[in-house]
C-alpha cells in the first residue's frame, strides 16, 4: 500500500495533466483534466490498476496505454509475470501489482522531471554573457533540476535531485517511455534517463531559457516544445551563418566608426548588444516571407542610430550630418536630438525579394511612451488595408529591461493586445536587457524575478537568450516571428546582454557597478568570438572576414565625406508617418482655405432620421433609449439639435463623404452622461447590437466607436498613433471626465503638443474633455485648460499680421487648437472643420456636462445649413449689440458660464447695458474678432469672467492678449473664483456661494471704480 501512496504523491507533486477515468471511452472525444490531490489518492490508483489487470478495456485508453508502456519497458521476465492473463490464472497478486507499480512510479517520476525542465529550466540556463549575474533576481537553482550531466557521475551530487523523484543513479541507464508532451526523442519513443536529462539540458539550460508553461493552450505549448526540444532543430546553413556574420560586422563597425569620429558625442550606442541588428533583420526576414508588407517599429534611444542605419537603411550621410553642430534647420520647429528621430522607408527585402515598408517611430526619452503609439499606427494601417488577420502589417517594440519592468504604460499596452478594437494581432517585443537601469541594479529596480514578467499577464511566451550567442539569438527570433505569424499573439525576446560603456558614452559606470565593469572590460567582443567560431568551422576564411570589415568601413568613410556637403538639416527627411498626396512635394498645404462647413437641410434631416431610428428588424431596445430616439425625432421635425444630435450630424456627414470616424474612450458608446447611445443593444438577445451610423448609405465610410479599457495613457497614445496613419480620418478620444486626461499627460506633452515642432509630424487627433464647475468636486470638474493654453505657442504680445485668410493662417501657425463650444452647432462645425482644413492640427475640445440637456443650449438647423461655418467668437446678439454706445460693460467668457451670465443678466434687467461675448476658440486667440468687439464697445469696461479659479482656467492666457488688442490703454478686469490649490470644491454649499459671489461681481457696475490699472 505504501507504493500506491508514493505513486499518488508523485502524481500530485507533478500536477500531471492526464485523462481521468470518467472521461469518454474509446472512440469518443476525450476530456483533458488535471488530477487534483483529492482525486489522486492511493485508493484511486489502486482501484485503477486492479481494474486494468482484470480487464484493460474497463479503464480509459490513456491508463491502458500507460500501464502497457510500463510493462513494455521492464525486463522481459518481469513483464511476463505481470501480464493480466497470468495473474488471472492464480499467480500471487500480492507481489505483482507492487512490482508493476514501481515501474509506473518511475515512469511518472521521469515525466515529472521532464515537466520540471520545461517549467523551471530557464532558472539554470546560461544567460548572462558576463558569467557573473543571473537574468532573474532570484538567483536560485531549483531543487528538482539536475544542473549538469557531469554531476551525475558523482553520487553525492546526483542523489539529492534524483531522490526528489524517487530515483537513484542505478536508474540513469534504464530506458523510459517518453510522454507525448515532449519532443526530445525525435523519432524515438524511449530513451535512457541519462540521455533524457542530457537532451533536456540542451533544450532548456543552454543559452536559451524559455517561459511558456503558464500558457493555458495545449496546442501553443506543444508548438513551442517542438521548436526547441526536437533534436538538431537549431541548425543553420553556411549561407545563413555568413549572412549573420556580415550583419554583425555592420552592427559592430557602425558603432566603432561613430566612436572614432565623434568620441565626445552622446549617441547611446549598441556596444554590448550588437546582435540586436541581425536579430531585428531575422524577424523582418521571416515575417516578410510569411507575407508581411509593413513593419512599424518603436524603440528607446539605445541603438537607434544603428537601427536607422542597418535595419531601416537610412542613408548614412544623413545620419552622420546630424553630428555637425553648425547645420541650420531647414524646416519649422526645434527638431530633436538624433537618437529620438524616426524614419519611414520602403525597400526590397533581399532575403525574400519582396517589397517591405519599415517605419521607425520618433520617440522622446519617455522610453515606453511610444509603445501604444506604435500599436495605434499598426492598427490603423491594418484597418485601411483590410488586414483583419494581421498578415500584412505588424509591429515590433524594443524595450530596455528597467523600463519594461518599471513603466506602467507597458502593462496598459499589453492589455490592449487582445481587445477587439485595439488588437494588432501580435507584437514581437525585444528587450535589450542591459541588466542595469542607468545606475540602478535590478534588485532595486523591480520586484519580479525577470524584467519581462509583465508579459505573462497576456500569456505571451518569453524567450530569454544570451546575446553573446548569435546563433541562439537568431533561432529565437526565427521562432518568435513564426509564433506571431501562426498564432497572432504577442511574444517577448529577452536579449540578456550588457552595456559596454555607461548610460551614455560620457558616463562613468565604475562609480556604481565596479565589479560588473571590470568584467566588461575583459569581455571579448561578440563579433570576434563569432568570427573565430566560423573560421574554425571552415564557414569563412580570415581573409573573407577582413574583406567584409574593410568593405563596410569604406561605405562609412564615403558617407562621412558626403555628409560634409550637407549645409542644411532637413527634418522632413526623418518623417515616420508621411501622408502622400496630402501636401505638396515641398510639404506645404495645397491651399490655404477651407469651404464652409454647413450642410443642406436634406442631409441634416437624413442623418437626424438615422439618429432617431433603429436600422435592424425585430430589434428590442431599452424603453429609456426608445424615449431618447423619440426625442431626437421630435427635434429633427422642429429643425433643432442638442449636443448629442449635433455630434451625430457631424460624424454622419463625414462618414457620408467617405471619411472614417473613430471614437474611443471609456464608455463612449453610450456616453458617460448617457447622452450619446451610438451603439444600441438588443434587450432580448445577448451580444446583439447595432450602430445606426453604419447604416447611413451604401458607400459611406465605416464608423468605429469602441469602449476602451480603463486606461488613459495607453489608450490616448494608441489613438494618437491611429491618427498618424492617415489625414483622411477623424480620430477622437474622449476622457470619461476631463480631469482624467492628466494620467495621459506624457502623451499630451511629448507627442501632441510638440510633435510637429520636434518631428514635423502632423496629427489631427481630437481630444474631447468634459469640463465645467457643477459642484461635483475637485476630480470631476476641470479638464485643466490652463495646461493646454500654457503650451500654446502663439505670442501674447504681438498682434499677428497675415496677408491671406486670418483664421486659416493662424491655425496653420499654431501647434494645436483649443476650443470651448457653447452651442451644438459650433461643436458640429468645429468637428467638420477639422477635416476640411488643408492641414492637420490636434484639436482640444472642452465639452460640456450640464449643457448636454440644457434647453437653452440647443441650435437651429439654420446655424448648420449651407454657407455657415465655425464661429471663433459668438458676439452679443441681444439689445446691447443694437445700441453699443449705451453699453457700460462687456463680459468676455467661454463655455458653460455664458448661460449662467445670460440668466443673471436677464434677471437683473441689464440686457441693454451689459454685453456678453463668447470665446469659442481660445487658442489660437482670435485677435481680429476680439479687436472688432473692443472697437464696437469702445466706451465700455472690459471684463473677463470664468468659473474656474483665478490661477487656473483661461485668465492667464487671455489677459495679455486682450491687453495687446487694447494696446495697453485700458484694463481687462478679472471676475471669477479666487486662487486655489484644488480645481473645485467638493462642498455643494461652498460651490453655490462661490457662484453667487462672482455673479454679483460680474454685474456690479461699480465693482472696479477707483481701481488702478
UniProtKB/TrEMBL annotation:
Cofactor(s) of this protein: Mg(2+); thiamine diphosphate
> Which UniProt keywords are listed?
Calcium, Glycolysis, Isopeptide bond, Magnesium, Metal-binding, Mitochondrion, Nucleus, Oxidoreductase, Thiamine pyrophosphate, Transit peptide, Ubl conjugation
- Is Transit peptide included in the keywords of this UniProt record? yes
Q: Drop me one GO molecular function for this one.
A: metal ion binding
Q: Where in or outside the cell is it found?
A: Mitochondrion; Nucleus
CDD domains the UniProt entry points to:
TPP_E1_OGDC_like
- Give the EC number(s) under which this enzyme is classified: 1.2.4.2
Family matches, as InterPro entries? 2-oxogl_dehyd_N, 2oxoglutarate_DH_E1, DH_E1, KGD_C_sf, ODO-1/KGD_C, THDP-binding, Transketolase-like_Pyr-bd
- What residues does the Transketolase-like pyrimidine-binding domain cover? 641-854
Give the record's GO biological process terms.
glycolytic process; tricarboxylic acid cycle
* UniProt KW Metal-binding keyword: yes
Determine the domain of life of the protein's source: Eukaryota
Major localisation:
mitochondrion
Q: Name one GO cellular component term.
A: nucleus
Q: Which reaction does it catalyse?
A: N(6)-[(R)-lipoyl]-L-lysyl-[protein] + 2-oxoglutarate + H(+) = N(6)-[(R)-S(8)-succinyldihydrolipoyl]-L-lysyl-[protein] + CO2
* Residues that span the membrane, as ranges: none
- Which PANTHER family does the protein's record reference? 2-OXOGLUTARATE DEHYDROGENASE, 2-OXOGLUTARATE DEHYDROGENASE-LIKE, MITOCHONDRIAL
Q: Name the protein family.
A: Belongs to the alpha-ketoglutarate dehydrogenase family.
Name this polypeptide is given: 2-oxoglutarate dehydrogenase complex component E1
What is the organism field in this record?
A: Pygocentrus nattereri (Red-bellied piranha)
